[in-house]
Amino acid sequence: SHTGSFKDLGMTVLVSMVHQMRCEGQDIPAIVCASTGDTSAALAAYGAAARIPVIVLLPKDKISVSQLIQPIANGALTLSIRTDFDGCMRLVRELVQKENVYLANSMNSLRIEGQKTVAIEMVQQFDWTVPDWIIIPGGNLGNVTALGKGFLEMQQMGIIDRVPGIAVAQAANANPLYNSYVKDFQSFEAVAAKDTLASAIRIGDPVSWERAIRVMRQFDGVVEEATENELADASARADRTGLFTCPHTGVALAALEKLLARRVITPDSRVVVVSTAHGLKFPEVKVKYHQDQLRDYDVAPARANHPVEVGADFDQVRGAVFDSLEAAFATSAGVG
Predict the structure, then answer these.
(1) Which of 1, 73, 235, 317 would bridge with 250, disulfide CB 3.0–4.6 Å?
(2) pTM of this prediction exceeds 0.85
(3) Which residues contact 127 (CB under 8 A, 6 or more apart)?
(4) Which fold has domain 116-285?
């Protein structure tokens, strides 16, 4: 994706439609969104390409520097608000109601139309067969709605003959859907989201919760949560396979491990984990994990990898190489 997250899929549809409406004479002076980082980056990029003014509201000091610089670089009016995402979202809704600006958050169905193509591409890449399970990191819950819509529409058109199981993964520090799930979705209550390494899903009052619960009921879905230590180590474990995962993907991977342990998902299942963004958007988390500087989040890094500093001397370099190889051999021998 162009800006490094799945949000591009929804935003290219939305901005294209706004561009068409403006060309047809509708008075839309700007597009606005609240964001935890990825939505604002996608909106700013596609808005710049379409030459449409963009306004983004971001929670101050609650997104990564890499996410913050994207809308700034693309020329968006970037408002750093002294609140959390839920506070930004309330302000955006009020702004849209009172002023003539266009909403770009996932409560807009155009976003859902774009993001549902994730389901279509997924099935296409499996030669039109359906995975057994989809694991989706859950924040504002638009992706749950979108993927559910994509699978149901393919089933209605006869493209597929069944739908997958859906599991939503939430950070334990921002888990309103999980709390609803353990009550069989009989009620839903917003929570005050706590600080989490998975900052893009630090959302306690998701706008798409009603649609998401409808999808979860249709798919007989499950919800799991992940602690900070679980999500950080799951992300680091995935990185050791050659990936470079974001913390939100870590939430989904940690949830998968827990669902496998409980046999909700069986080892022979074909499972797709939705990786919502690139790890390069969250370099601070990666660096602090490997430097063991996430103790405030109760993270004890099991897979920290420290750089080894040596002098410009062959024997020192050789010694460091062989020490590393011997340690790796001893570890693999112990596992074997």
Answers:
(1) 235
(2) yes
(3) none
(4) Rossmann fold (3.40.50)
